[in-house]
Amino acid sequence: EWDAATGECLRTLEGHTEDVRSAIYSPAGDKIVSASADHTVKEWDAAAGECLRTLQGHMEWVNSAVYSPAGDKIVSASDDHTVKEWDVATGECLRTLEGHTGDVNSAVYSPVGDKIVSASDDHTVKEWDVATGECLCTLEEHTHWVSSAVYSPAGDKILSASWDHTVKEWDAATGECLRTLEGHTNDVFSAVYSPAGDKILSVSVDLTVKEWDAATGECLHTLEGYTNYVTSAVYSPAGDKIVSASRDHTVKEWDAATGECLRTLAGHTNWVNSAVYSPSGDKIVSASWDKNVKEWDAATGECLRTLKGHTNNVVSAVYSPSGDKILSASQDNTVKEWDAATGECLRTLEEHTKIVWSAVYSSAGDKIVSRSQDGTVKEWDTATGKCLKTFRIEDDPDLFEYHSKNMLNRELQTRLQTSDNKIYLPTSTRNKENRILINIPGLWIQGCSFKNLEKNSQWSEEALKKMKQYGARF
């Protein structure tokens, strides 16, 4: 129960009963929608902290829930193989989009909100008519799980990324596959358009980032040089540069026109989890497992300052909408806000009791929302640092028991088995000792990340399903 005037938490309101897969603001910023492994979607009043409604109907984990561009509808994607659309005003399920035969990983609206595109483990992408719920077309040339599907900025094309090592671009009107972008040698887990829609950027487990000409499908550049996984890659606000982060401890900036590596930002001493531009594009902020946040001059590559204060791995760092502040989330259970001009720590938000996986600003920059392993989503007042409300979600013990104690050897290859919600791997055919599969929580904002085994490893369907449920990336 909450004080409607102050937002003070009078008592803990229990809501979701399992892991929360996503939590985001509505376009107007007055509501929050969350998706959970408890099979539900919940909508919350962002001002009062009240749970406005629980959207029930899915029979399995809900992987994502997002608002329509107008904010009047919600679309959710689930492991029950369906996509559901909901009326925001009433909570009524307007329609269930059925047709997928595997887990649905994502569902998003087109830029004008008249269509929905969904990506699934059944190797397909489906486009739906929002007005009727009719499946307009099924895009079915992928040969493995489809990780994501997004519209182009103009809404006339669809881009899909798959574990079959390819990116495909489709005509949104006809469903025709315009081109297949081939070149990656391992799973592709994301593909996005540049702000102008004329280029495509893809990130793969093969340690590369590739930029493609959206008109021809030509690979313009392969951004290589990393010696470990690339954890993120994004365009600058102007679309003329790319910044990428890697587990090899570096950040690299690239010329989007030529693919030339402009500079390597070296200074971190452990994995770099993320790197993003400031809103004006003149600075870069990076977050690392070395417990530090670093801000860089995008023009020179000079490290302007190192933000020290966290006592454990920093999972993410982002700028405020105005670019004058930096927000970092850490495995030390805290969120810190920093003055971007001086590097001074303005405040430490420390009511979480376990790892904080992500922290972001509202669109107006006046609030912060953080998500933690302690089973809560918290909203904070940016001006005072006061916790306005806590959305309580009970911990999922299976998820956190999933962490292991031992790193596996890369040479191991054998069949995984599941038992009691754990995954075990015999160390060899000669040595029957079992070890729990390593879970690397470095990319928790995207899900658990598992140690990559030999290319020819055989995975049981049960093991694949279990790891996929927890957002595993291989």
Structure write-up:
The protein is mainly β and 474 residues long. It has two helices and 42 strands. The strands form eleven sheets. Strands 1-37-36-35-34 form a five-stranded mixed beta sheet, with no helix packed on it. A four-stranded antiparallel beta sheet has the order 2-3-4-5, with no helix packed on it. A hairpin with an 8-residue loop joins strand 41 (439-440) and strand 42.
Count of DSSP strands: 42
Major sheet attributes: 5 strands, mixed
Range of helix content: under 10%
Continuous helix count: 2
Radius of gyration from the alpha-carbon trace, in angstroms: 22 Å
Quaternary organization: single chain
Q: What order do the strands of the largest sheet run in, or round the barrel if closed?
A: 1-37-36-35-34
Poorly predicted regions: 9-13, 394-458, 470-474
**Alpha-carbon distance between the two ends:** 42 Å
Give the amount of beta strand, in percent. over 45%
- Structural class of the helix and strand makeup? mainly beta
Mean pLDDT: 79
Rough outline:
globular
Could you give a quick summary of the protein structure above?
The chain is an all-beta fold. The protein contains two helices and 42 strands. It is globular and about 55 Å long.
Per-chain topology:
Elements: E1 13-14, E2 20-25, E3 31-36, E4 40-45, E5 51-56, E6 62-67, E7 73-78, E8 83-87, E9 93-97, E10 104-109, E11 115-120, E12 125-129, E13 135-139, E14 146-151, E15 157-162, E16 167-171, E17 177-181, E18 188-193, E19 199-204, E20 209-213, E21 219-223, E22 230-235, E23 241-246, E24 250-255, E25 261-266, E26 272-277, E27 283-288, E28 293-297, E29 303-307, E30 314-319, E31 325-330, E32 335-339, E33 345-349, E34 356-361, E35 367-372, E36 376-381, E37 387-392, H1 397-401, E38 417-419, E39 422-426, E40 434-436, E41 439-440, E42 449-450, H2 461-469
Parallel strand pairs: 1-37
Antiparallel strand pairs: 2-3, 3-4, 4-5, 6-7, 7-8, 8-9, 10-11, 11-12, 12-13, 14-15, 15-16, 16-17, 18-19, 19-20, 20-21, 22-23, 23-24, 24-25, 26-27, 27-28, 28-29, 30-31, 31-32, 32-33, 34-35, 35-36, 36-37, 38-39, 39-40, 41-42
